[in-house]
Amino acid sequence: MHIHNLIGIGFGPSNLALAIALQEQGHPADALYLERQEQFAWHPDMLLDNTHMQISFLKDLAMLRNPTSRYTFLHYLHQQQRLQDFINLKTFYPSRREFNDYLAWAARQFAAQCHYGEDVSAVLPVLENGQVTHLNVQSRDRHGRVQERLARNIVVSVGGSPAIPDSFAAFKDDERVFHSSAYLTGLARLKDARRIAVIGAGQSAAEIFMDLHGKNFNVDLITRGRAIKPADDSPFINEIFNADYTDYVFHQAPSERAALLDEYHNTNYAVADTALIEQIFNVFYQQKVLGDQRHQFLRRHDVVAAHAEAGGIQLQLNDQESGTAFTTRYDAVILATGYQRQKHHSLLAPLAPWLDGMAVDRHYQLIGNAQFQPRVFLQGGCEASHGLSDTLLSITAIRSQEIGAALHATAAAAAL
């Protein structure tokens, strides 16, 4: 079997940015990417009307690494003959639909290197004389056939998996309960639903609430917090998403890294844009004006249990303020409960004997022992060591440059 220099697992923005960086840095083109989706799509089920990016378009796939790149958002606008019109919008924040179109435009230029519809199931070691010399990447294609490919290096960029609360674990096959990551698809499958519960208090929950409001559903927004908190995106706080801040975080002691993550938690988790919060507040205010309580904001409420019935989903809720419990029925429940980023642990489990857990070095490479020759890089799985920007677009261009440089250094050393 041919041994690829690089196999990228996942072909979202992170590995797309890496493909661009490798091309522009003149590295060998023997790179292959495997993506489980049938075509490129970036959070397709959250491409809602009137939603916009939360970071500047300048933090695109290439700009911070190479402002002259032909893969920047500005070059995309020029190619689409929309640059002047976009300038007239006077914004740094394009619509989410437009940014998704930009990413898909860039991905199409690497179609020959990407195999869509392949879900990677395992990464196995290949041993020669007691040394792991390369890796066997196993995947299953859209027809159920198992594919095997060999690689000297891999970059794992699999994104997050929906975080499902324990009380909803049994609803996996119930179309009336679904995660925000499947929002548009799940909503389209609902039949005769009018009363919907949205659980969560972050950006996704807020966007879904407003979308359902616009579609004339009756919505209860259920959250354990007292309020929907605004994301802190002030200039000094935003410095934590600068590329050089990654160095600062990485070189701190583990306890200090954890403290930094906790201190800046409200920049990214369980928060929403201030303008969106104001829209939601206005919805509830207008209800008071009209005397029509179509929606409820059930703050400081816990979901104690959930039960499926023919007539709907029964939620047992606990009011933390009064200490009272009650049961209410919904036609559907949407879980805007965030993501877990642990999939790489199970994917790379067969390599555990040669790795130092999931510890990584500064260049996102998993640390292996002397018997482990391949290089395994993580994109989006290093928040604990590299900071809050690791799962976001902010450092994507710079990170791809660093991983590309590390791969190039390995190839150069092997050639000596």
TrEMBL record:
**Cofactor(s) the protein needs:** FAD
Pathway listed: Siderophore biosynthesis
Recite the UniProt keywords alphabetically. FAD, Flavoprotein, NADP, Oxidoreductase
Q: Which regions span the lipid bilayer?
A: none
In the record, the note on similarity to other proteins reads:
Belongs to the lysine N(6)-hydroxylase/L-ornithine N(5)-oxygenase family.
What is the protein's name according to its record? Lysine N(6)-hydroxylase/L-ornithine N(5)-oxygenase family protein
Per the UniProt record, the source organism is Janthinobacterium fluminis
